[in-house]
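DNA polymerase delta subunit 4
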Amino acid sequence: MGPKRRLITDTFKVVKRAKKEEKQDKEPAAPEKEKDLLELQQFDLDWRYGPCTGISRLQRWERAELYGLKPPQTVRDLLRRSGEETDYTHCLWHDYPL
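Predicted structure tokens:
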């Protein structure tokens, strides 16, 4: 009988490395922001709440609420949570001269 075949792991032990959790924490932030912005864009495209040019999204939401149009509460919460970030405050058509 010939010599016993040895495995490479007999000489070099397998060492499992710890996964970095920092990258996992940062990755969901971008898709969440994209999801939020998509919801705000849908609010901009819905003409039931009036025109969105010339005013901020929060002003448009408040105006729609004043006239009893029942805009989505999630949009208001999203706008309040985002603060003064221009991606959230300005409407979809803000960059275009209308």
